[in-house]
Design brief:
single chain; mainly alpha
């Protein structure tokens, strides 16, 4: 495994995409180190994606594409402005709250950064915010996207561990809101310190009603998902399909902001994005087989158990390790490789599995905004016309408060478990 680790690190260092890093490392092992038939490569890759629950991924991605092209983003921003526009640092607060609403539609951090950033970063600069600060707020709040359902990475975790998608979705709401609240507190502090502007005039009631009407059409999409899944009327995969159908109806007939060409473009874009995600899953499953053959999970388990018997120390160690892994690997790939390793160890410490799942997922999602892999940083850079280095430096204080929120989630399990408990997923 030392040789495989060297191959893995070298491939990452020269900038090979993570899917191919996993593939190259696995292929090297099968060719030169393992006495295993090469036919297993195709079998393991296929079995990695031969799972009904994974059908939800392309449909959730498609629903996000359709809702984004329906211009629902504008209505959500206006609605957020009504809610928090009079708080100091108004546009920063609007940015964060809009991310919460947008998370319930796309479940993607990169989509959040691209859609909201293209509108709010220039608007914040026009109001007197620095480009670095405006971009940092946008990027930091995009982490909320994969935490609040629907979430592609939660579907991947379910596939990797067998945890209920519905339970994971239920457990994601309070953590997502807690992360948003931590960002709002920091934005309030900066607003007071730097005298950031806020809205002082009242919005006419006619405009409020119109904005709410436009926003409700968009917010009905996550509402349909929540009611349908939690009531048991349909599975998460069926919910994703229904969300796509609703998005098409909303864009073509209710809002009338989307053309048939844009529907086709949404299908094409979703197909490309889904293919990348599924390739990562297939090759991560192959790499996981290499780890299983070399008994890496049991070796790590024995190491952890011999190192400490204290649950608090174990959770701290896991958090530090996951933060590092999030910096160098895509969250989906990390979940597929690490969840089957760490979940059994967590169970030996008496940690509730759903609680551990959310701690892991929230932690790994921070990798979206940390270099060198941080995909949200790269999505924001061309919008703000800033270097990755400047954005990374500006986002550090926001990462700091998000880590504080992560510590609350880690050591206060009820913040994660109360909603699934109320909905009957756990007792």
């Amino acid at each position: 495994m030392g040789i495989i680790a060297v191959v893995f690190i070298l491939a990452l260092a020269i900038g090979i995409p993570i899917a191919f890093v996993l593939g190259v490392s696995s292929l090297y092992y099968f060719l030169f180190l393992g006495n295993i038939p090469l036919s297993m490569i195709g079998q393991k890759m296929y079995s990695g994606i031969d799972n009904y629950i994974l059908l939800a991924i392309p449909f959730f991605i498609l629903a996000g594409e359709l809702m984004n092209r329906s211009k629902i983003t504008d209505a959500l921003i206006s609605f957020s402005n009504i809610l928090v526009g009079r708080i100091p640092g108004a546009l920063a607060q609007v940015n964060i709250v809009a991310s919460v609403f947008f998370a319930g539609i796309t479940g993607s951090g990169v989509a959040d950064t691209a859609a909201l950033g293209s509108i709010l970063i220039p608007a914040m600069e026009k109001e007197g915010y620095t480009a670095e600060y405006a971009t940092a707020v946008t990027v930091a709040s995009s982490v909320i996207g994969p935490i609040i359902p629907p979430s592609v990475v939660m579907v991947i975790y379910s596939m990797a561990t067998g945890e209920s998608v519905g339970a994971l979705f239920a457990a994601g709401y309070l953590p997502g809101i807690l992360v948003a609240f931590s960002l709002m507190v920091l934005s309030y502090y900066y607003a007071k310190k730097h005298n950031h502007p806020r809205r002082t005039n009242k919005i006419p009631m006619k405009e409020v009603i119109y904005t709410m009407k436009e926003s409700i059409i968009g917010l009905m999409c996550p509402a349909i998902l929540v009611i349908g899944i939690f009531s048991g009327y349909f599975t998460p995969t069926e919910a994703a399909v229904i969300a796509c159908l609703y998005a098409i109806i909303a864009g073509l007939f209710l809002l009338k902001t989307m053309s048939l060409k844009e529907v086709f473009d949404s299908f094409l874009s979703a197909a490309v994005t889904s293919s990348v995600t599924l390739l990562v899953i297939a090759l991560a499953n192959l790499f996981g087989q290499v780890l299983a053959i070399e008994r890496i999970p049991s070796l790590i388990a024995n190491f952890m158990l011999n190192l400490t018997s204290n649950k608090i120390i174990f959770l701290l160690m896991v958090n530090v390790f996951l933060l590092f892994m999030g910096m160098i690997m895509d969250p989906g790939a990390s979940v597929l490789i690490l969840a089957p390793i760490f979940l059994p160890i967590a169970l030996t410490y008496g940690i509730q599995p759903l609680h551990f799942a959310i701690v892991m997922l929230v932690n790994l999602n921070f990798g979206l905004i940390t270099p060198p892999v941080g995909t949200c940083l790269y999505a924001a850079a061309p919008i703000a016309k800033l270097s990755i280095e400047k954005i990374s430096k500006a986002v550090l204080p926001f990462i700091g408060v998000e880590l504080i929120a992560l510590m609350f989630l880690t050591y206060i399990p009820e913040l994660t478990l109360i909603v699934p408990r109320l909905l009957g997923y756990i007792y």
